[in-house]
Structure formats: structure tokens, C-alpha cells
């Protein structure tokens, strides 16, 4: 195919989008609606995943240190904890600061009583360890137990197991819903494109009757599919963005009262746009090529039936 033919067929693809604008609009609306559903469901599950991640960060392991541990040993112990693969963050909590915090939660008379009874601090030094991946929670606790100068470890194993189960469940549900929506989208889109190609079967038959090759006939439809896919993906991204911002505005007070923060859409806009364009182009091009293949072998048949 020469460069001039390529330019001509590309122009034909753009022209056909406008010439058959009603069917083009129908294809865009169907594909756009499906992408909006997929995008909206994705943002809901991304927010749920973000909420679970914040809860996981609060599920820390407290490693209490033996009283006779020296400052040098404490520093060495911190390095050993940081060296554990699944440890995300380590914070040293001195017994003095822990005791001050404990006193601040008491009433004034109760706090004064404890400070007057004894000057000794009844709490040990500790390390506040944040686990990176709760799937390896038990393994991490076992490694912490093996360290020297560890007095006792306080951890909430039940909460960790529940969070892991919830995350896995949410992931499975999200994947299933997105796949189901995608399959429904492909079914609706394929039928819409089939109607579009069927309405232009005479045009295909005329081109074949004057000697046009299959690739020559097919190329403008491919260009149309790309155009429709790009337009659908762009509009769908804008609609998902608008719906998401509207939902945040409507439920802003509720989120604030629960001390929750919605994720920023712009952090996911570019990847979502790329996925939308990819789905749109594949559906548009694939649907056109597959559907029109049955008409490419009917040279002149549609003309003879007119």
C-alpha cells in the first residue's frame, strides 16, 4: 500500500465517522457507558483498598526491651529490626515518653498519686514496628522473637488475619466485577458494531465489485474504530472524573466525620486513560474487522440484491 493510498484511506476513515455520524454516535455512547461503569467500579475498589492499607498501617507490633539493655545494644537492636525484610518502619519509644503519655490519659489526682508513690517508671523501652505485608505477619513476629534483649512482644494476630482475609476477598470481588462488566461491554459493543457494518454492507459490496482488495476495504473501518475508541475513552475518563468528584463533594462531611480521606483521582487518571483508550481501540477495531469479514467475500452480492 503506497503512502498516497494510506493518506486517502485515512481521510476516508475520518470522513466516514462524520458521514455515518448517527451510528458513530451510537457506538461511542455504548462504549463510553461501559467504560464509565468499569471506571466507577474501579475507583470504588481503589478507595476500599486504600482504606484497608491505612488500617493495616495501624496494626503495629510492639517489641518491649529488657530493662538491662544498654544504649549500644538498643541501637544494634534497631538495626537488626530494620534488616528484617517485611519491616516497613521502626520507631523507638522510650519508657519516659511512654510513661508521660500514660499519665496524660489519667485524671489529675490519679497521675499525681502515681508520681508521688514512686519515681521509678514501671514501663520498659520499646520499638514500634510497622509491618509492610500482613501476609507475612506471623513470619515477621517469629523473626522479632529471635532477636536478643527482647522481653515480650505485643501483637494483634487476629486483626491481621481478618485484614488479610478482607483484602483478598475485596480483590477477588473487584476482579470478578470488572471482568463481568468488560464481558457485558464487549457483547453490547460487538452487536452495535455489527449493526453499523450491516448498515454499510452495500458500500463494502460496491468497493469489492470494482476490484478493491480486502485490506483496502478494511483500512477505513480500522481508522474509524481507532477514532471511536479514542473519543469514547476520552469522554468516559471525563465522566468518571466528574462523577467521582461529585461523589466526594456529596459524601465529604461523612468522610470527614469518619476521619477518612478519598484517594486523589489525578493519581490514577493517566493509567485509567491509557486503559480506556486501549479497550476502546481494541473493541472498535476488533469489532469492525471481525464483523465485516463476512461481507468481504460477497463481491457484488449486495448490489445484485438491490
Describe the structure using short key phrases:
elongated; disordered C terminus; 306 residues; single chain; 4-stranded antiparallel β-sheet; 4 strands; alpha+beta
Descriptive overview:
The two termini are 31 Å apart. The protein has helices at residues 3-19, 21-58, 71-82, 95-104, 108-117, 137-145, 157-198, 201-209, 214-250, 252-257, 266-292, 301-304; strands at residues 60-65, 87-93, 126-131, 150-154. It has a four-stranded antiparallel β-sheet. The protein is of the alpha+beta class and 306 residues long.
Short description:
This protein is of the alpha+beta class. It has helices at 3-19, 21-58, 71-82, 95-104, 108-117, 137-145, 157-198, 201-209, 214-250, 252-257, 266-292, 301-304, and strands spanning 60-65, 87-93, 126-131, 150-154.
Class from secondary-structure proportions: alpha+beta
Number of strands: 4
Helix content: over 70%
Indicate the multimeric state: single chain
Report the sheet-strand fraction: 5-15%
Radius of gyration: 32 Å
Low-confidence stretches: 299-304
Distance between the termini: 31 Å
Could you give the order of the helices and strands?
HHEHEHHEHEHHHHHH
Spatial ordering of strands, largest sheet:
2-3-1-4
Mean residue pLDDT: 77
Profile the largest sheet: 4 strands, antiparallel
* Tally of contiguous helical segments: 12
What is the general shape? Answer: elongated
Secondary-structure map with pairings?
Elements: H1 3-19, H2 21-58, E1 60-65, H3 71-82, E2 87-93, H4 95-104, H5 108-117, E3 126-131, H6 137-145, E4 150-154, H7 157-198, H8 201-209, H9 214-250, H10 252-257, H11 266-292, H12 301-304
Antiparallel strand pairs: 1-3, 1-4, 2-3
Helix pairs in contact: 1-9, 2-7, 2-9, 2-11, 7-11, 9-11
